Each structure stands twice: as C-alpha cells, then as structure tokens.
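STRUCTURE:
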C-alpha cells in the first residue's frame, strides 16, 4: 500500500495495469477481489485526500460547512457534468443510486390509472420501491418487462417494442419506466439509449438506473441521449469513497423534482418560486459526512493519472472478456455473453452447480461464507433463468491469473455445496 501527496504522486510515472496497481489500494494481501461492482474500492491516494479533508473540517467545522464547502461541491459537480455531457446545473449529488431513483419516483404526482414499468432484472430495492408506490394510494398500475439471458441487444429491442405497443398509456394518464443502463445481476449492458428512445416516442417518462455506468461506460453524453432522469453511483466504478452518486435532471424536467429527500431548508413551494430551486435543495439538506461527495475530485485525478477513462476501460473490458472465457474453461461451463456484445467490465459465467437447486437464504450465505472466509476471494453469485451464475468485475488491479485462481475456488465450493445441498435434487 503506497501513500504520498497528490502533487508528488501525480508527477511519478503511473503503474502498469495489473497487480502492480494493487499497492495503490488498501486490500488485504490475501484477498482476491473480483467484485468491485458491488461496493467499489477507493484508491489509497483518494483515502489520503479524504483524511486530509476530514482534518480540515474538524479544525474549524463552522468555517468549512458555512463557507468552504460549497465551492468544493461546485467543482465536483462541474467535473461530473463534463464527464457525462451535461450542464452543471443539471447535476447534483446524492448518497447512492437507490436514493436518487427514489427521489425521482416519489416526486411524481401519481394518479389512479398511471403506470409504473420496471423489468424483472431491475435492482431489488428499486423493484420494491415500485411495489410500494403501487401499494399506497392512488395505487398506480405496475407492469413488468421480462428479460431472460442469454439474449442479444437485437432481441431485447424487438421484444421491448412489442411490450410497449401492447401496453399503451391510458388517455389522460402518465407512464414512467425504470431502465437499467447496466443490469446489476446479470452484469450486462442493455441497449438503454434505444429503449429510452422507444419509450420517449410512446410518451413514457424514462428513469435510467445507471448505478454501474459512470467509470465503466465511456462516452456518456446525456445532452445527446436525453433521458428524462439518469442516476449513477460514483463509488462503484469511478473510485470515489463510499457512498456518492450523481443525479442528472435536465432543466426541462426539474419542475418534477419539487423536493429533495429529505426536504431541504431551501425548499420553496412550487407556486412561490421566482428562481430555480433544484440545485440549491441538494447543496444542503441535512448534516452528513460530505467527504465522499468531495472525494470524487481526487478519484477523477487518480484515474486521469493512471491513464484516463478510455485506457482504464479498454483494459478492464478486454480482461473481462478473456477472463470470462478462461473461467468458463476451468468451471466447464459457459459465458452468458460469448460474443461480448453485452459485456463491459463485468462478465457472467455459469457456475457448476445444479439449476434445479433453487436459491434460498441458506444457500446464499453458505456461498458467501465459503468464498470469503475460507478462500478469501469473491465474485458475485446469483440465480437467473434456471441457472446459477457468477458475475466477475474486472478492474485495473486484476490479471488473467486472478480468474484462474477464482475458478479453482469456485470448483471446490460448488462441489462442497452440492454435497451439502444435493438432497434437494431428490
């Protein structure tokens, strides 16, 4: 683990991608991390910057929170806006993607006969949010688009067009859809821009759950793709400290977001507003630790130093594709996306564990305990379309041999699990 000041570090030659990068992270030397997609991992230089900022805050909390905080937050918002192709006053920070999506969904004024659309692959807490909104008055109708993998972008688009055509908006009502840019499980890239365009043409409001996008999906240009709302975590792939997320609301839609969550002291009743009231509500809506938000600046600096977004993601994508194929060879199974069209930096490989054994909380925790306690390694496991899979997140500290080691661990664990739970087959 290496520590040094930003000014000193960024004058040095950056490391080659692979295990040489590990010294810039705080990992246990025995831990094999192929699951960055769940929680992210913060580089040590970013942690150092956070600690320095923390000491600055504690030296004079009033000075920081009353005078010094907002210029730093504005700088972060400017840098994020540049990264995602948006105007700075369309970008605010929230703690995570789930809160951002909840902020949007709970600001709509729902009426009886309105429709909320999600996918069967929508992130769990977001599907539960949709369910909750249906459960309370005025009980908007919930519909769900089914996705089963393996599949292709072409087939997804064709099926989605049929689904939208079969579910027209009721006269005088509204319809809102939550679309993943990159699904959590399976970890696949959806043709989200095309799906958003189809929805827009049908008069449907689009909320893009881009939890995994920033730092993994390059060339994001929201001014061009024009989703109605877009939310992405900055701690998963952009290397910021947990937790921080960016909420994009174009100016044309900011009237929808009447209140931040929680409601800010800056809230003004919509009928009384003389000036824009969107950004200011998210600048301060309660005392929290703002260092994760501000760590985004140092995270971007670190990523620029090691090579920038394109170099980082070219390496991670190539490793994900090659690593997935190698892992499938070791497991004697298959890659969910053999051509790599749906793969960015996460690859999904079938586990050698019978799909006839249905998932249970006990099986889930046993998988985690064996991989994390016994083998000190992890890649996310999940059940989809009658099969067990693992989702591997390729990062700049990984090499192909990490996939090989991981595969050997999964072979052992799946065999042990089959012995323990095989009775469910009878």
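SEQUENCE:
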């Amino acid at each position: 683990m290496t520590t040094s000041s930003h000014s000193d570090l960024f004058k040095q030659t950056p490391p080659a991608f692979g295990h040489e990068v590990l010294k810039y992270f705080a990992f246990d030397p025995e831990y094999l991390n192929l699951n960055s997609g769940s929680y992210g991992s913060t580089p040590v230089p970013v942690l150092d910057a956070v600690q320095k900022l923390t000491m600055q805050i504690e030296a004079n909390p009033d000075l920081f929170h009353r005078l010094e905080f907002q210029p730093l937050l504005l700088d972060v918002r400017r840098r994020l806006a540049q990264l995602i192709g948006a105007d700075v006053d369309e970008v605010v920070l929230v703690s995570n993607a789930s809160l951002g999506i909840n902020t949007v969904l709970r600001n709509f004024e729902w009426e009886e006969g309105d429709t909320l659309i999600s996918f069967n692959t929508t992130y769990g807490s977001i599907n539960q949010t949709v369910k909750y909104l249906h459960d309370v008055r005025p009980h908007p109708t919930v519909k769900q688009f089914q996705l089963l993998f393996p599949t292709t972008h072409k087939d997804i688009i064709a099926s989605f067009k049929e689904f939208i055509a079969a579910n027209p908006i009721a006269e005088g009502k509204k319809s809102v859809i939550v679309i993943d840019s990159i699904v959590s499980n399976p970890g696949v890239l959806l043709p989200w821009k095309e799906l958003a365009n189809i929805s827009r043409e049908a008069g449907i409001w689009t909320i893009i759950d881009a939890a995994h996008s920033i730092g993994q999906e390059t060339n994001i240009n929201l001014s061009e793709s024009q989703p109605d709302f877009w939310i992405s975590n900055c701690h998963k792939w952009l290397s910021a400290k947990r937790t921080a997320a960016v909420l994009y609301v174009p100016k044309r839609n900011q009237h929808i977001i009447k209140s931040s969550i929680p409601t800010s002291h800056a809230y003004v009743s919509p009928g009384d507003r003389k000036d824009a009231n969107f950004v200011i509500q998210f600048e301060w809506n309660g005392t929290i630790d703002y260092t994760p938000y501000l760590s985004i600046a140092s995270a971007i600096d670190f990523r620029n130093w090691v090579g920038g977004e394109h170099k980082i993601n070219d390496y991670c994508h190539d490793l994900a594709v090659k690593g997935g194929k190698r892992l499938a060879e070791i497991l004697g199974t298959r890659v969910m996306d053999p051509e790599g069209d749906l793969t960015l930096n996460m690859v999904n490989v079938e586990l050698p564990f019978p799909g006839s054994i249905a998932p249970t909380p006990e099986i889930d925790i046993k998988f985690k305990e064996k991989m994390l306690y016994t083998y000190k390694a992890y890649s996310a496991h999940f059940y989809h379309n009658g099969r067990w899979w693992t989702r591997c997140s390729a990062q700049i500290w990984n090499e192909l041999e990490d996939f090989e080691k991981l595969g050997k661990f999964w072979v052992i664990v799946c065999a042990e699990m089959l012995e323990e739970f095989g009775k469910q087959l009878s």
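REMARK: The chain is about 40% helix and 15% strand.
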